[in-house]
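=== RUN LOG ===
request id: a7f3
mode: sequence -> structure
chains: 1
length: 326
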Amino acid sequence: MRLLILGGSGFAGRAVAEEAVRRGFDVTVFNRGHRDGPAGVRTLTGDRDFRSGLGALAAGEWDAVLDTWSGDAEAVQRSVDLLRGRAGHYTYVSTRSVYDWQRRIDVLTERTPLTSPAEKGYAGDKLRGEIAAASFDGPVLLARAGLILGPGEDVGRLPWWLNRLARGGPTLAPGPADYPLQYIDVRDLAAFLVGAFEAGLSGPYNVVGPSGHATMGELLSVGAEVTGGRAELVWVTAEQIAAAGIKPWQELPIWLPPGPEADYIHRGDVSKALAAGLRVRPVRETVVDTWAWLRSLPGPAPQRGDRRPVGVPADAETRVLALVTR
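=== RESULT ===
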C-alpha cells in the first residue's frame, strides 16, 4: 500500500510512518526537511505554507494520505486540491477540541455539536482543516485525537512529569488520586490509523483510550517507580491548587480540576473507535517506554515551537507543599 504522510518526522506522523513501514507499506513523507524521517521511508521536501512549496507533490499517486497539519487550514485545502484524483483515501488528524465543549452535554460523542468555523486558535484551525479535508474526492477519515502521550512526545506533558519525579523528594500530586484519565499512546493511535487506511474507514472517530483506562494516581505512581522511586507523592486538592494560583493543564500537565472541562477532556465516548479496532496498551508500558526514550536522548527532549513549555514553577510547588505538609 502506498502511503503519503504530510509531515512524518514529528510525533504522531513519525509514529504512523514507523508503523506503516513495519507493516510493509511503501511510505513517502513530505515535510520541510528539518528533521530526518524514519528509516525505510522516501522523503520529499517542501513547504505547505505556500502553494509554490508543493512542487515535490506535483506528480505521483498514493493509496492513502495522512495529514497532521495544525495551523492555517489553507495548507490542508492546497494539499487536498493538489492530490485530488491521485490518492484513494485521506485521513486528517484532528482533535476533540473541535467540539463545542461549552454546551452542556452528558458524554462527548462523534455526534456532539461542533464549535463555529469562525473560532480563532487551535480549535478553529482544526475544524477548518476538517472542512478542507472533507472536500477530497474520496473517503475521508477525521481522526479526532485526544491527549497523546508516549515515546517521542514533543509537547512535553509526560516528559515533564517523569523528569520531575526523577528529581525525587516531596512532589505535588494533583488530586484526587482516582481521577480518571483519557489519553492515547501515540503507537496505539498509529496502529489504529494504519488499520483505518487498510479498511477504508471514513467519517469522524474519537481516537483516544477509554476514560479511566488509567487514573492520575496510577500514572504518577508508575512514573515514580520507573524513575527510581525517589519521589514522595503529596496529594493536593483542586481547591489548594487554585488557591496557589497554579494553572491546570499548562503548569500541571494532563490534570484538570474535576468539573465540566475535565469531563470534556477525560470522559468522552470512544465506543465507535473501539468497535473499529482501536486497542490500547497498559499505562505502565507507556510510562516505561517514554522514560527509556527520554534517557536515550543526548540532550533535552524535543519541544514543538508552536506550544508553550509546560510544568509548574519550582517555587510555586514548594509553596503549596509547605502549606499542605506543615
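=== NOTES ===
The mean pLDDT is 94.
DSSP finds eleven helices and 13 strands in the chain.
=== END ===
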